[in-house]
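ok trying this again, last paste got cut off
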Amino acid sequence: MTVEEYNDCVKQYADNVYRFVLKNIRDEDKAADIVQDAYEKMWRHHQNVDPVKGKSYLFSTAYHVLIDHTRREKHSARLDEADLLGHSHERQYSDLQEVLHQALEKLPQDQKMVVMMRDYEGYSYEEIGEITGLSESQVKVYIYRARVFLRKYIGKMEVVI
């Protein structure tokens, strides 16, 4: 990948990568740092990157940086912030998006990533597998399990609406 191709790739996919990371961690500063780290890693290896696969390489790198960041933060999280028993939703809300975000936060990181890539970003199973390094069948399993959990968490629509 030449310098021009690298710059074109960054310009073309910068917003998408940032949105993807931001939806997962919901902290603008951390998301910007993670995206910047992904750009840096791509730049260090730009000579070995096929320009045709630039998008995939960039998203894959951002995904792995995000996973590393999440794991580091998980180890430093305080125990009193953990809600290990609250895996159901019974309160009445009028904001479905708020309930959905709470449910997404309860998902395991891998399931959350693949369901967001599929449902929010619109990637195919094959593209998600390429970005995450998972097989296509594993991607489908993670998405299925995530959707089952979300359905159970949200519960009856009467409670949500």
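PB: full thing came through this time. The CA atoms of residues 34 and 66 lie 6 Å apart.
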